[in-house]
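User: Could you walk me through two proteins back to back? I'd like the raw sequence and the structure tokens for each, with a short line separating them so I can tell where one ends and the next begins.

Assistant: Of course. Protein one, sequence then structure:
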Amino acid sequence: MIHIERIHHIAIICRDYQLSKDFYTKILGFKIEQEIYREERNSYKLDLSLNGQYLIELFSFPDPPARMTRPEAAGLRHIAFAVKNIEKEVTSLADKHVFTEAIRIDECTGKKYTFFNDPDGLPIELYEL
């Protein structure tokens, strides 16, 4: 068995780089750690952190294929972010024209959660602590 310490990062490929950059920084509040344009690939790589923890690499590539189905396609199903007050965060998202599904209760934990999508339709979950 290997000894994994923690998740290092999540890599996301987007279709519209500026739209996704604005979404993750201006709406979700991620901080830009580094932004690189790789001319040979015609691609940006944006390193994002939250509360001092490096979490997301946002990539742009020319004409990436669309996700085939969702959410039960093989591979990453969604990413989830923990919040203290889900109603407050849902209202904050709505104020920025990002709409969530109805808040549900996790039948195993009794905790509140909801889903919304990033600009490319990647499912994102908010889960109340």
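----
Protein two, same layout:
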Amino acid sequence: MTLLDPKVQQFIDAHVGANLTALALRKNPFPEVDWTSILNQIAAKTKAKDKLPTWFATPGIVYPSKISVEQTSSEKTARYKSGLVTGQSLIDMTGGFGVDDFYFAKRIDKVVHCEMNTELSDIVKQNLGRLGVANIDCICGDSAQILKVLGRPFDWLYIDPSRRSESKGKVFMLADCLPNVPDLLDFYFAYAPNILIKTAPLLDLSAGLRELKNVRGIHVVALEGEVKELLWLLEKGYDGPIGIETVNLVKDGAERFGFEWGQAVTPSYGSVQKYLYEPNAAVLKSGGFDQVSAQLGLEKLHPHSHLYTSDQRIGFPGRSFEVKQVIDYGKKEMKQHLEAKKANITVRNFPETVENIRKKHKIKDGGTDYCFFTTDLNNRKIVLICAKI
């Protein structure tokens, strides 16, 4: 009996979402199969339910550790990523659980999945068979050596460097990751004219650009308001403008905003008007605050507030609100309008935290009012009481 035995699979399916701590104390109903492995399958499949619905819905899928499932791309971000590549061939230098490659294979004729972990490589190969994918070759071993042995060019090289270092713990600079992409770029370009790199959301764009060369584009990808990954597109010999694309993947589509890195623009500033706009996390991560104002014809409330306003409502890459009232941030005004009431609070360029404001003025979380505590052009501390659109 193995993990793929129908009875074991039925047990795993029946306990998706179960309390694993309590389940672990129970007697193993399948003594021939390691109990810890069964529990791991339950934990990983529970994580995959929303993140990897195709895998979750496919019978006979074997999962690696729960951590591996947590670290892999979601299907939504993998699908977006696949839209950035075209051509005949792609090699994935850090294959992992193979979610990205599953989607690359829908657009690329032949994909090579490299993975050093023998067990994980075997799992991916078996799962791809279950998923009906025939154009991905799984090769176990060091990806640099695999490149040399194969000795052929690829249209694309994809890499997701490990952000954990034995000596430094969790790292974010590319030179500290494994493999060291900045040091290996010339080697990689010898095999592929196009390179796609996935990095941690916490990597600063300026820092990444200092480490890399031939960057022609950066995609800041958020999922439901949380930045999940930065995608760096490199082209051999490229030395032109760098395009920044921000995307927030939401249930009914995507919020997009783009601009050219380093291009000087002049934002407009003004006082609060009828509508207020708060950029999504991808836009905030990109740093394109002045470009939002210049491109969309909006006025900023303050150079450091990153809130925008207009008299006419527009489509916006983020949240939109109708301003009901603007008050000074003072004891008297707070007592009159917000004290001991319910409100959703956001602070932008403001000297107090949300927690302090709630505690000081006895404001409970929730309700229909959205209150922005911020600073205006005259450095006056104000509160914008709004209704979400």
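The two ends are 56 Å apart (CA to CA).

Let me know if you want the two compared in more detail.
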